[in-house]
Amino acid sequence: MTAALQIISMNSRTAQRAVRFLIVEAFIKVSDPALRLNDTQAAVVLAEHPTLAEHACRQQGFGRFADKLEQASLPHLVEHLAIDLLAKDYQGAIAGTTTWNNHAQQTMLVRLRIPLAESESKRQDEENLLAERRAGDGLLAERRIRAEQAIQQAITEVNELFK
Ligand SMILES: [Zn+2]
């Protein structure tokens, strides 16, 4: 049986004009765009990730993700799960969006925007991050890998629910 979700590719970068954010994008193929969580699956997800219920969500009107869980596309769920996994490690809010990338090919794009701020000073952060970028992306690469792992883990969890 094919997995509900399959990762096509991932990429990441720091935002051009705002180095304080890391942008991570994942292109995900959905086996059936109509797939949604049923009551039981939603309960399992919320039991394993209770903080998911507190997420704000702007998709189709501002609200709580908990109220949208059963209408959410599976990549949208991946977005929130990945944010939930990463949220403990970062100061500031991680933002995410999920959109269609190619409807005909059933691929959706999950984009995360992760704050990289670490010091009190915005200018200091920018200097640090630019230095890191020049120095070969050491820390940035680490953060990117962690973000990509969170997305992978979220996809694995969702696929498990639909096995
Ligand atoms: Zn959302």
Keywords:
two-stranded antiparallel ribbon; 163 residues; 4-stranded antiparallel beta sheet; 4 helices; 25% strand; single chain; alpha+beta
Description:
It is a single chain. With 163 residues, the chain is of the alpha+beta class. It has one domain. The protein is built from four helices and six strands; from the N terminus they run E-E-H-E-E-H-E-E-H-H. A four-stranded antiparallel β-sheet has the order 1-2-6-5, covered by helices on one side. It has a two-stranded antiparallel ribbon with strand order 3-4. Helix 2 packs across helix 4 (138-161). The longest helix is centred in the C-terminal third of the chain and has 24 residues, at 138-161. The model has no long low-confidence stretch (mean pLDDT 87). Residues 57, 59, 65, 76, 80 line the site of zinc ion (ZN). Residues 57, 59, 65, 76, 80 line the site of zinc ion.
**Derived structural class:** alpha+beta
The bound ligands are: zinc ion
Spatial order of strands in the largest sheet:
1-2-6-5
Instruction: Please give the count of helices.
Output: 4
Give the topology string: H per helix, E per strand.
EEHEEHEEHH
Number of separate domains: 1
Question: How many runs of DSSP E, i.e. beta strands?
Answer: 6
Mean pLDDT: 87
For the biggest sheet, the summary is: 4 strands, antiparallel
Which range best describes the helical content: under 10%, 10-25%, 25-40%, 40-55%, 55-70% or over 70%?
Answer: 25-40%
Beta-strand residue fraction? 25-35%
Q: State the end-to-end distance.
A: 8 Å
Radius of gyration: 16 Å
